[in-house]
Amino acid sequence: MFKNIIVKGIAIASLSAFLAGCQDELEEINENPNEAISAQPEYLLANSIKSNADVILGSDASMETTTLFVQHWAKIQYTDVDKYTVSISNIQNIWTNLYSQGLTDFTRIIEIGEQTGNVNYQAVGLILKSWTFQILTDLYGDIPYSEAGKIEQTLTPKYDAQKDVYLGLLNDLKKASELINPAGSPISGDVIYNGNLNKWKKFANSLRLRIALRIADREPEIAKTVVAELAADKSQLIASNDEIAQLNYLASPNQNPVSRDRETRDDYRVSKSVIDKLQELKDPRLAIFANKTVDATPTGYLGVTNGLPADSSAKLGFTKTSKLGDYFTAPTSPAVFLSYSEVLFNLAEAAQRGFIADKPAELYKAAVTASLQQFKVNSADITAYLAQPAVAYNPANFKKSIGEQKWLALFSQGPEAYTEWRRLDYPQLKPAYAGVLDGKIPSRLIYPTGEQALNGANYKAAVANQGEDRLTTKLWFDVF
After folding, report:
1. Is the pLDDT reported for residue 17 higher than 60?
2. d(CA 177, CA 235)
3. Which of 270, 245, 286, 300 is nearest to 375 (CA)?
4. Among 30-44, 98-112, 222-236, where is mean pLDDT lowest?
5. Angle at 260 between CA 255 and CA 266, to 5 degrees
6. CA–CA gap between residue 117 and residue 113 (Å, rounded)
């Protein structure tokens, strides 16, 4: 009996070894000799930057949501989304694309940098990861942050409070800035700064400045400390339009997503809110932001009121309303992540709040100038524009002066413009004409339904902390 057991054991062991050998041989046969065994950081970096840029300019995070909420654009067809009937798929797509694509790739770039000793890949990955988390928390509020992307540890990450996310990002960006070593190993695949590490440091510091102002109404002392540190050497911030953090798109099939969308659709127009403000201020950016109407109209430009019923918008007509300017629909139009004018507006606000000793009016004037120069407005027109009393800085209501001009400077940067409008409360926009939120404009995006199904306990904890999962629930940073 015992002998038979031994014989059977030997036979089973021999069979197992044979099968294991066969499996090894099959794996070798199925290996593609031309396929990389490990991810190449340059390909990950280029692809993930474009992926995120496509999100912030594309239908989900911009065209069908934030550019409508902030009334940069309006709908002349299919107007339900312009009335705040937000598509569940748009909400899910933003979350899924930023978490499963951008953040996953940026995390892998950081890991590769750590494994290879290339601190610059670590830093750039951390900067872009922080920027992505900033977009997510700006839109949704409390989000998975500290446990996000740690699949080996948990498939159901907890939601961190928005305050903790912002504070964490301030620390992450400081670490990234300190990691960068321009004299160290180079990076490839950089489609933003072409490997210029000094500019990446400026991007990191400028993101810290942005986030410091985000929390200024809630945590003024922390904001002041961060801003004072950054403003001590302004050359370490984005310091010209040549240093704007942006992705310059190419021709088809790598064109700007707005350009791709316009190839087959014609359902967007410039909002009446923007065109009216530009005309009121005799703003030379009008001809850049909007095209003249095809048919003759009294001023040559006509914006569309946000949230019109479908029959009302149809009566306006396609040829008597202003389309988005050619600058923004060109295949190579850039996706702007952070501009020079935004840095100056943030410094102006910091000065007005007493965080730094600079003169806010001078920084505000420089910010407006930078925006006009970004859009190639000539010097004479800039001088005339700034001379108008309606454009002059008002220290008694700095949020109005900065808010209205920042709203214009961020035109078509949907997520950022929407967040700054919520924070500064200017311009004072009227809710969509036929809006479905009882006379309110959305204050956030609701969480995707996938989270309720797959991460239910943490989703419920986030709602309990933040407030009802509604479009009208104000986020932590949105105090007033």
Report:
1. no
2. 14
3. 286
4. 30-44
5. 150
6. 6
